[in-house]
Prior knowledge:
There is one protein chain. The protein is α/β, with parallel strands linked by helices. The protein has a single domain (about 5-290), classed as TIM Barrel (Alpha-Beta Barrel). It has helices at about 15-25, 35, 40-45, 80-90, 110-125, 140-150, 165-170, 175-185, 195-200, 220-230, 255-270, 290, and strands at about 30, 50-55, 60, 70, 95-100, 130-135, 155, 205-210, 235-240, 275. The strands form two sheets. The protein has an eight-stranded mixed beta sheet. Strand 5 (about 95-100), helix 5 and strand 6 (about 130-135) form a beta-alpha-beta unit. It is globular and about 45 Å long. The chain starts with 15 loop residues before the first helix and ends with a helix. The relative contact order is 0.13.
Amino acid sequence: xxxxxxxxxxxxxxxxxxxxxxxxxxxxxxxxxxxxxxxxxxxxxxxxxxxxxxxxxxxxxxxxxxxxxxxxxxxxxxxxxxxxxxxxxxxxxxxxxxxxxxxxxxxxxxxxxxxxxxxxxxxxxxxxxxxxxxxxxxxxxxxxxxxxxxxxxxxxxxxxxxxxxxxxxxxxxxxxxxxxxxxxxxxxxxxxxxxxxxxxxxxxxxxxxxxxxxxxxxxxxxxxxxxxxxxxxxxxxxxxxxxxxxxxxxxxxxxxxxxxxxxxxxxxxxxxxxxxxxxxxxxxxxxxxxxxxx
Length: 294
């Protein structure tokens, strides 16, 4: 693959807010996908006193070809983690928080109970904070998804990651139709005790995201959009795949900003209520804008 084009050369800064956020996370012994997955936006997010918390340890039970999160023996579930995240959200005075996790196929509920406990802890300490959870597929368990939904987050996100035709290479442990079915189920949940926003609309918002540059065609991208809209997905993010190392799936193409704009326009035409499509877009980056713009 050729060298990164100019539009993918990001300038980094390290200000007081970045140090404050990083120091707080270390003090509370909290993990973030920002660092574990080598997100190119983490310094920007830290400088705005925001972060995407990653629960249930740092070792994933799957080994996707695109992901930099460690694969290995999973960590013990930390019963005190929800309290620490609640404290972190309160101390950072966050108005919008994203909580994600490694995939935990070793747990009977896939980690759904820990998601619910974290949501409850944030609600207790920061009742005005909007909460988005970015969940794994829970092995297709509707009961596990129900546990998360009953905790009443504002948004449930599950990343489809790539087009159907690239799954065997990019997501060998996942199933395309299983992920679509999870997204479809999100719109069915109206949890008791839901927040005001959820009660007004009668359902939890659904969200997904995928990468480009993995060898997909434009027609495959448009078909993926149609599949997501077909299961009721409302929010969509599209970003450039960047290989974390030579051991990961190679970058097949650096997609131009103009193509990202075309994808965004197509997605809006297909009915997504919020679309973020640009080279450095990631599923959690500036996630609060989706609810603000509704």
